[in-house]
Specification:
heterodimer, A: alpha/beta, D-Maltodextrin-Binding Protein, domain 2, B: MetI-like fold, 15 helices, about 70% helix, cell membrane (chain B), MetI-like_sf (chain B), membrane (chain B)
Amino acid sequence: MLLKRLAAASLFAGLMGSAAFAANCGPEGQSIRILASDFPAIHAVVDAARANCGDAAAEFTANHTTEARQIMNAALTPNPAEYTSVILANATLTQLMNDGLVRPLNDLVEKYKDSIPPNVLITIDGNVMAVAFMANSQHLFSRKDILEQAGVDSIPASYEEVLEAAEKIRAAGIMEHPIAMNLQTGWNVGEVFNMIYLGHGGEFFAPGSAEPSINNEQGIAALETMKALAEYAHPDHLTHASNETQGLWESGQAALAIMWGSRGAPILDDEGSTEEVTSNTVLSAAPTVGGGSIPAATLWWDGISIASNVSDEEAEATFAALISGLTPEMVAENNDDAVWLLPGFEPGPAAAGVAGTVQGGARPYPMIPQIGLLHAALGSELTDFLKGGESAEQALADVETAYRTSAKEAGFLK
Amino acid sequence: MKHRTFFWFILPTLSAMILFIALPIVSVFIQSLFVEHEQVLVVSESCGPFGCTPTTTVDTAATAALQEEQPLGRFNGLNTYINRSHLAFAEVGEAWRNTETFGAFWKQIINLPFYRALIFTLTYTAVVTPVVIALGLAIAVGVNNLPRFLKGPSIFISLLPFLVTPLVGSLILFWMVDSDGVIGATIQRIFNDPSLSLKASTALTWTMLIVYGVWHTLPFSFITFYAGLQTVPEDTMEAAMIDGASKWQRMIHVIVPHLAPLMSFVTLMLLMDNFRVFEPIVSFKAEAHATSLSWIIYNDLRESGNPLYGSAGATSMMTIIGVVILLTPVLIRTWRDFSRKAH
């Protein structure tokens, strides 16, 4: 079975290689308008699509903006929509599907199945809603020189080992605050809770309903873990997001960090840091927690979606153009910009962390319609506990009531 | 002026105000009375590169049908105003019944998002407004007494904080108070405490926001008072000097009364601006320690992916009511002065 799949994959890779010279761009003379986040891997995909099919289209525009999440619903609501495609991720797909703004891709996938890599279809209730091309997750960054200096022999594999190593580093007088984490109040601190809670085996909602179910043993254990970690984090940790933790790491002020896989390549490159830091940085899977067997992380993908409110011809031309960009050549040219889910990807040191986390069986970020509301409630109610003014039970009860209030307003709860 | 002439005179302004101020407020109020339709959820399965998981999705066709029937959503009356995210009547009542001491009651109150934001907003307004007025007047008098050739440059320098965009100004200060920044590191050295952080303590964060607020709005009160000082009548000043009034007495008995109407104006503007404090909280990333009413509106519209228009509308209405309550004493005073002069 496995051999068969491998054979199919390599045959497929061969086909893709030859197909790249004459990309199938679908209907000609259409308008292709793409809304996407602003990072190198997504630029690579969109630029490849433009190179292949830009000439066949009457118009090919791309808006790369960090505010994509904020504008996508409004931009796709009118008919015709402002964009024909949004490059999105787990959470944003849910956000658009809640308003019915992206179309099922089943017929397009059937038509272009020869150009679509295996295992990248995002299927919800039997409908293909997106085609993923890259993965991301949080994972562990370690400084092996500092760990050795403090007498820690191996890279920590669990949060308990992370805490133990942090204590040794502090006791040895090397660093007072060896841990760096994205604990900024709001989305980031909520996301840290999500990953550690999933690592403890927690579930966010009662099955099949929008009733929250986080005020339980796993929830309390997750909060206790977060607090223990925060003890070893920089005193300003409640204001730290990705840019700040990357800065701490690159300036050599942290020895153990939980950061996004997409920060791997910028940290390992020769800009913004010293040889001492980059040569000793090791990326590994997200740690497990509380004796659990899966890495405590949430897996994310980025992928292609097509707007509902555009003509079928525009939809097909956009789909064909973007699919034509997912070639091994594109991957080869931009190998270290992302953890590609595409043929031709050769995982380098920058991808080791995400690859390890995926292989360890970490859970994907839940694609549940009301998860955004719970995430927002976590983001605003958990800091009282981390500041030390509140018990874990009280914090989780606050999250649940805050969530219930907004879920009632949004129509998810009665 | 005849009433008829006055009407035609005011008509363009009036219609613009109705169109751009009154009607949007009415619209926000109406939206705050409604909540979203019930979302029709379907249990399904989602599959992707990381395997399959059971999930739920929104039945968009069924939800769209509901929306077609009632485009505004479900009527909810004033329930959004009294839910936990806002006035939280039920929670406050419960806290009052279940707590023995005032301290315990207070602790439960500041655990509620609206009251927590209100407390910071009021503190900020109550501190920044008088400090900005007093300091602004002091600087204006100081600059006014400078030799002529120094006046221009000092006015320019005093106005600088006003020229910096609030978001940028607060970001710069945010970096300066970082433990690696010039102010943060100096404070650590003075107190000899390497883990001292202005961003990690609630009291210091509030201080930082208030200092920023004073720094940023000071030029407004300074320049207004400075303009006012140019109109102080020379005769009265000379008469006071001949009567033997000291510099301080002239200040209290001549200049301050002369500037009183300006002070009402500055107070009005500052109260309104300070009650809407927002940018520094975002740029200082101070949400863990301080939130404001405007910040709650922003958070409701932005944080959860699908905006909570009802909540945002309710908080907006209560912000307007808060501004009106704060302004009432000043307005009453102005009205009294006006009617006294009229008779």
